[in-house]
Amino acid sequence: MITRKSKREIEKMQAAGDILVKCHKEIAKMIKPGITTMEIDAFVEKFLEEHGATPEQKGYSGYPYAICASLNDEICHGFPRDEKLIDGDIITIDMVVNLDGGLADSAWTYAVGNVDEKGLRLMDVTKTALYKGIEQARAGKRIGDIGHAIQTYAEEEGFSVVRDFTGHGIGPTLHEEPHIPHFGLPNKGLRLKEGMVITIEPMINEGDWQSQMDQNNWTARTIDKGRSAQYEHTLVITKDAPLIITDQDK
């Protein structure tokens, strides 16, 4: 069922978003060769506890960590690990914050040390694709408009769009209707309405768009070892430009 959120619900989600943004900004300072994603996971656990919040995905369908940490060719749902990040890696940290029942979800891809030009371009195109999708996310538009804007831009830049994972509605539970594909046709799909809260989270690959699943039944990676990047915001549909509750640039 698709729900439209009340002003009070949106305020609670914004409060969670504010904590999530602060946490991501601290993570950005930590990303460097030699750190482990298990150390980042422990930091997030402590940070959220200190701010009266909890990691929503920990325990979700049995997922054991506070963050997803997807490295290089991992598309999403990578497990934190004890191996140290090395110069040239790209790492996506994805987390969901729960503050008094309000949820916020955001992923960000970080460069570890000196990343090659193609890797930096992959990251830049992915982030730009996110915002091109967000531009279409307003009342009266359709879900297909979001995906079409993302797909058209990413493919014109020579990259591919993952189809196996989508954005989603959020609040009061983590994954709700509607699904928000990052590909598609304009003027197709559900019409967006004021008060809907969704995530847009394109996963863009260097090579082929198809994914394969690791033996842990969580981590998806590219089939050709090409790198993958992801940026994600949680946003509220309004009659005008959407309200990005995980905006890092306020």
From TrEMBL:
A divalent metal cation 1 binds at D94, D105, E232. Substrate binds at H77, H175. It comes from the Bacteria. Residues 11-239 form the Peptidase M24 domain. It catalyses: Release of N-terminal amino acids, preferentially methionine, from peptides and arylamides. The keyword Hydrolase applies. Gene3D superfamilies: Creatinase/methionine aminopeptidase superfamily. SUPFAM superfamilies: Creatinase/aminopeptidase. GO terms for cellular component: cytosol. A divalent metal cation 2 binds at D105, H168, E201, E232. Monomer. Belongs to the peptidase M24A family. Methionine aminopeptidase type 1 subfamily. NCBIfam families: met_pdase_I. This is Methionine aminopeptidase. It comes from Virgibacillus halodenitrificans.
